[in-house]
Amino acid sequence: MALEHRHISQMLETGIVAARLAGQRAMEELNFIKASLKNNKSEMVTETDARCQQIIVDRIKETYPDHGFIAEEGGKEKIFKQAPRGSEHIWWVIDPLDGTNNFAHRMLFFTVSIAVMHEGGPIAGVIFEPATESMFTAAKGLEAQLNGRRITAGKEKMDKFSSVGLDSHFDNEVPAWACEIMLRTRFHNLGSTALQLAYVAKGSLIAAIHSSPKLWDIAAGSLIAETAGAIVSDWQGGKIFPVDLDSYEGQELQVIAANKKVHPELLGLLKS
User: Fold this and answer.
1) Residues of CATH 3.30.540.10 domain(s) within the chain?
2) Nearest CA among 18, 93, 92 for reference residue 56
């Protein structure tokens, strides 16, 4: 079922309000953080994550009580998931604090990421960086924007003056493709997958490559980057969406987002 543009725009506005409210709460709690490790011992979580998520869900439910939710913090190491009850079958996919490790160490590279998904793909996306009051947005039929101004992914090539966003760590050894990127570019890791995708959208990064993000890390950022003119794919060059949201339980994905000039080159590095 096709959705009207005005309905998508209204959902985008709701996401913007929810993201700003959650971001403001995160900034208020920045100096009073209580962090712990999840049971998998590879991810940190703070009490603020859950509070920000509740703020977002409550705000959205005020307007869209029948919509579904998939979010990172569900308690007892599970995701938060509520299926849609309405005929539209719309899901909100939420990361209340992307960059929790940064936040827990009082580093300001963290974001609130909210996507609206319909028929397995994102139709509206919001990434809010509260420390800089940066609101990245996109929606089907609308342009990608930063604080209300259009952004584009740019055409910069891969060289010693360009920047690529990489994962924050590698399990056993740094793969050859990553070493090649490190040698040829001013590589970065901002500690937030969503923020790196947003930076691809505005042309600050020529690409972002992530090996194991979850849906809530990339749903909004993929739409924003793609709307800004970047190419977003898995590591084989295939489409990431649609995703079967009814069966999604936190499975890891692979994503590369890059401007059109460097995407084929980076895809070749990954395949080699």
Assistant:
1) 5-150
2) 18
The answer to whether the CB of 73 falls within 8 A of the CB of 66 is no
Structure-token pair, residue 73: 């913090």
Classified by CATH at the fold level, domain 164-271 comes out as: D-Maltodextrin-Binding Protein; domain 2 (3.40.190)
3-state SS string for 215-235:
HHHHHHHHHHHHHCCCEEECC
Q: Between 5-28 and 47-63, two packed helices, what is the crossing angle to 10 degrees?
A: 150
Query: What's the Rg (C-alpha) of the chain?
Result: 17
Query: What b/e sequence results for 243-255 when a residue is b if at least 16 CB atoms lie within 10 Å of its CB, and e otherwise?
Result: bebeebeeeebbb
Q: What is the pTM of this model?
A: 0.95
146-198 pLDDT tens trace: 999 999 999 999 999 999 999 877 878 889 999 999 999 999 999 999 999 99
CATH class given for the domain over 5-150: alpha beta
Q: Rounded mean pLDDT of 236-250?
A: 97
Tokens of 10: 């209204």
